[in-house]
């Protein structure tokens, strides 16, 4: 296996989670008697560019298919995040009715709705039919396609080039990362800007966020590697922001070479990663032990709870929860069901564990003793939403970065 960025041979294992089904491949009731396909879930570190990555054991087209069930608009905090971004980027870049904003992996139009509301022309690029249809229903022009250099050149030729390209939580999701970033260069105007957001590898390691590893995430990114990646395609990173989203993310701002002066934030974060040791192979060698510690503590807690007669359920049918459940070998005997706000997931079953996904009404009627919050990055939002559960003595639990009962 070779590095998907620099093509060096990969030998160093970063994390081995055995095997798992794709984390968003939710099951319907009529498929419970059929087998699931499990794929290796092993990550490697490139000793040359330090990109952490998983092999493409299943094609990205099959991972992001017409039955894709993740809809961004079901998280209030994520919508608020998108609104704040638009409030910031419009005046910063001087966007107006003559500009064009393109969002790659635009999902259900969660962000472009705020762009459109300002009278700024915008187009979403979204390969999954279900979310693209939802975006169009909300009045957002959406092209159903994967993004890459060929698509970008065709779009720029047939339409026009973009003043702003947005890519939130997508850079890690593409198997051909060089083709993807080359697409940014091809679709931007000479003075245009691309912003990308992605979980920061430094936070993943320091906060033991191994559950964010799944087959849809082909790459796990440091800032240093992203700067090098963008530079190889004629894009200069000129600003970077540290964000709390997804357990600690980065927002990177880049433009064609020579367009904008580099801000001090770029050097500060590069220095921070270097001082932390992220440019040395040894920094990447001990994460397996951290993941095992989280897994072992979680399983022991669940077993103790069930043996004590406690009724344990989950909240949030998130992909990260599926990684944790399948690596830990947790099934319906330890967690009875998982509540989720999305009707696209309700009535289905989690991949691998086959734990049923139900609506919130079930929670109110059942009155469990413990609720395990799987999307721990949204814990405050979820605890506030489910505050009524405290009336019957229910407690909330998170497993990452360490087991915590609230």
Characterization of the model:
- By secondary structure, the chain is an alpha/beta fold.
- It has 13 helices and 17 strands.
- The protein has helices spanning 60-63, 76-93, 112-117, 129-137, 149-158, 177-187, 201-206, 223-231, 264-276, 287-307, 319-328, 360-366, 379-385; strands spanning 12-20, 39-45, 52-54, 101-104, 122-125, 142-143, 162-168, 188-199, 219-220, 235-243, 249-256, 312-315, 338-339, 357-358, 370-373, 395-398, 404-405.
- A seven-stranded mixed sheet has the order 6-5-4-7-8-11-10. The protein has a six-stranded mixed sheet with strand order 14-13-12-15-16-17. A four-stranded antiparallel sheet has the order 1-2-3-9.
- The model has no long low-confidence stretch (mean pLDDT 95).
Compose a concise summary of this entry.
Strand 7 (162-168), helix 6 (177-187) and strand 8 (188-199) form a beta-alpha-beta unit.
């Amino acid at each position: 296996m070779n590095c998907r960025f620099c093509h060096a041979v990969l030998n160093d294992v970063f994390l081995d989670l055995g095997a798992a089904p794709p984390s968003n491949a939710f099951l319907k009731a009529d498929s419970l008697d059929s087998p699931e396909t499990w794929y290796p879930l092993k990550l490697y570190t490139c000793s040359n560019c330090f990109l952490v990555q998983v092999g493409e054991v299943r094609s990205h087209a099959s991972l992001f298919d017409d039955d894709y069930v993740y809809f961004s608009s079901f998280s209030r905090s994520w919508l608020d995040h998108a609104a704040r971004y638009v409030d910031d980027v419009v005046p910063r870049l001087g966007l107006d009715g003559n500009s064009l904003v393109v969002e790659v992996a635009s999902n259900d139009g969660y962000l472009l709705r705020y762009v459109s509301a300002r009278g700024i022309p915008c187009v979403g690029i979204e390969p999954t039919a279900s979310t693209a249809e939802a975006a169009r229903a909300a009045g957002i022009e959406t092209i159903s396609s994967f993004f890459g250099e060929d698509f970008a050149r065709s779009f720029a030729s047939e339409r026009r080039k973009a003043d702003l390209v947005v890519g939130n939580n997508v850079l890690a999701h593409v198997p051909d990362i060089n083709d993807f970033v080359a697409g940014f260069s091809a679709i931007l105007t000479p003075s245009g800007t691309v912003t990308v957001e992605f979980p920061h590898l430094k936070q993943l390691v320091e906060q033991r966020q191994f559950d964010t590893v799944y087959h849809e995430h082909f790459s796990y990114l440091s800032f240093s590697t992203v700067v090098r990646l963008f530079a190889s395609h004629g894009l200069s990173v000129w600003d970077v922001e540290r964000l709390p989203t997804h357990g600690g993310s980065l927002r990177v701002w880049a433009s064609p070479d020579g367009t904008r002066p580099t801000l001090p934030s770029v050097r500060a974060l590069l220095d921070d990663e270097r001082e932390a040791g992220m440019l040395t192979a040894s920094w990447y060698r001990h994460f397996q032990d951290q993941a095992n510690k989280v897994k072992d503590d979680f399983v022991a807690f669940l077993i103790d709870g069930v043996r004590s007669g406690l009724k344990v359920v989950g909240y949030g049918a998130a992909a990260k929860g599926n990684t944790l459940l399948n690596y830990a070998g947790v099934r319906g005997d330890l967690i009875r069901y998982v509540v989720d706000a999305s009707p696209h997931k309700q009535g289905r079953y989690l991949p691998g564990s086959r734990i049923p996904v139900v609506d919130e009404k079930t929670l109110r009627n059942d009155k469990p003793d413990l609720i395990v919050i799987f999307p721990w990055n949204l814990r405050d939002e979820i605890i506030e939403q489910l505050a009524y559960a405290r009336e019957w003595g229910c407690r909330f639990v998170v497993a990452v970065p360490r087991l915590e009962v609230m």
